[in-house]
Amino acid sequence: MIRKSKKGTTRRKFLQNVTGGVLVPAVVKGAAPFDRLSSSIDRSRQDGLTAIVTLEKGVTRPWLDSALWANRLQDWRLKNGRIECLAGGQEDLGRTVGILTREIVSGEGAAHLRVVTGTLESSGIGGFSGFLIGVGAGNLDYRSSALAQKASGMAGGFWCGYESDGQIRFREHTDERAPLAYEELSSEQTREGLGPKRNLNEVVELRLDIKSESSGRFSVTLNAFDAKTGELLAGGIRRDVADQDVTGAVSLVSSATPQSAGRARHWFQDLESGGSKIANHASRSLGPILGTLYSLNQNVLKVSVQLMPLSDEEPRTVLFQYRAPGGLWQEGTSAEWGVGYSAVFRMEEWDSSKSWEYRVRYENLSGVQHDYLGVVQQDPKDY
Fold this sequence. Notes:
By secondary structure, the protein is mainly β. The protein has 2 domains: 2-284, Sandwich (Jelly Rolls); 289-376, Immunoglobulins (Immunoglobulin-like, Sandwich), CATH 2.60.40. It contains 3 helices and 25 strands. The strands form 4 sheets. Strands 1, 2, 3, 5, 6, 8, 12, 13, 14, 15 and 17 form an 11-stranded antiparallel beta sheet that branches. Strands 4, 7, 9, 10, 11, 16 and 18 form a 7-stranded antiparallel beta sheet that branches. The chain has a 4-stranded antiparallel beta sheet with strand order 22-21-24-25, with no helix packed on it. Strand 21 (317-323) and strand 22 (330-336) form a beta hairpin. The termini are far apart.
């Protein structure tokens, strides 16, 4: 079966400095026999997939991970190694988690994304979980792209979702005249007949595959499998999609179905990626140390450290170390983070006659050390 979009879309000039979304339309050409469609399904684990995050277990907190940015922070939580959406009504459509460290790049090749997901809440028509791809078309700064959510806009990409009725659908995310319509885009099914509806006990593996069809054109396939048995539950494919329509940032999404009385919330874990069209930008990670601020008054140094929202189950000690440029690290002092997830250091008898490199270190519950580096500049006083 072919699903056709209800209206055409047009490409508009890219807007800089947007923090919402932007879209890229594509038209599917023709149906294909189910035997040919089913051949596109890779029922075995794709080679070369690597974990994007290793989620902390044994904690519950608003902050998810250094590779992820939640939109909004209060709409998500990490709970015992699982990402959970807390907002699911019509006022909270398109809740996203931006993947800071991955990007679909321009050019030939393939991209693969995998995640395990399930339903936390569903009522009325329900909603969908899956991916938002193509944000920014490769022209938007990754920090702005990571904020894409809810309202559609120029270069906003498109939704790839497994919906509550058990079907795969692709929905646009570019229409500024109807930013919350999420109009359905043309697609074909990769599973004959209706699959089972989603339920609260499900454990579903979603696999998104982007593959070259011809020069500069790609197919985008989303398949849903029972994570326990490997059975194909649902599948959909968009064909003849332009390269620029899939290029850009990637996010997870949990959303209610737009323009309905439905509610829906979903969970995610085991997020992986692979393929030559996916770039790994480990340097874009953020947290658990968000930043520092220092003041120097003669020989008294004060440093405040801002951390991401952590949980009470996690370690509270933050270390301050320093060294002459290129020298050995010296122990400075320690402090515990408290109200506002901040820690404050005070050091007297600081040698302000020269510049010092500093390192703020935090060790998490798993024993992984996270460092934040900076420089305390020499006092501008003429020595």
